[in-house]
Amino acid sequence: MSTVLCIDDEPAILRLLSVVLAADGHEVMTATAGREALTIIGRGAVDAVLLDLGLADRDGLELIPAIRAITAVPILVISARGEVAEKVTALDLGAADYITKPFDGDEVRARLRVALRQGAKSLTPDGVICHGPIRMNPERHEAEVSGRPLSLTPKEYALLKALIEANGRVLTHAALLERVWGKAHRQDVEYLRVTIRALRLKIEEDPARPIVIRNEPGVGYRLG
User: Fold this and answer.
1) How large a percentage of the chain has pLDDT more than 90?
2) Cα(176)–Cα(159) distance, rounded to whole angstroms?
3) Rounded mean pLDDT of 4-31?
4) pLDDT band for position 139 (50/70/90)?
5) What is the dihedral of CA 202, 207, 211, 217, to 10 degrees?
6) How far apart are CA 24 and CA 10, in angstroms?
7) Do 91 and 192 reside in the same domain of the chain?
8) Given CB 3.0 to 4.6 Å as the disulfide criterion, which of 27, 43, 93, 193 pairs with 64?
9) Are residues 40 and 96 in the same domain?
10) Contact 97, 169 (CB under 8 A)
11) Cα–Cα–Cα angle for 28, 29, 33, nearest 5°?
12) What is the pLDDT of residues 120-133, one digit of tens each?
């Protein structure tokens, strides 16, 4: 299985995470401080990182871009900070997911499995990008779901492409708005909601119960 680095300054949490992750066969490494964690990550033997934000030597939010400068492995934040603003900041900095303490072991394992599966971009040799039943050919500006061609507006196409390229990671409202509409529209969430609604009508089997385009309330969207 994978090697997972757990970063937390509470030994009891590290012991609990070690037991939880070992149940899925993962090898677990631990660090109690940011400097120690960066040293371990720099050796290149880590497949994923579970990160607490309340470290003794530095704020975990500062550690996310430092990790990103070394590796592209998924970073899952596990923190007692449950404010939406904290989640948005962590995701914008490059975290793949955000789990609030107290956490459920089954949820941690499930989210880690998703992050590891989607850690590498689904890019075929002919340049087609895929996610589940969705296939897109950016060069030809074509898209299909379950073999059925999709007729998408330019904004719908750009939004769907951004979500696929995120490989299941949550993209915040601001990040999606900036990418598709430009920096001047980072606060225009209604633009995003309208376009997501239109995409769901074209992609989902039951748009009222979407399973492909998932909503993270108050934060953003991801592909399921």
Assistant:
1) 53
2) 7
3) 94
4) confident
5) 110
6) 22
7) no
8) 93
9) yes
10) yes
11) 140
12) 444 455 668 888 88
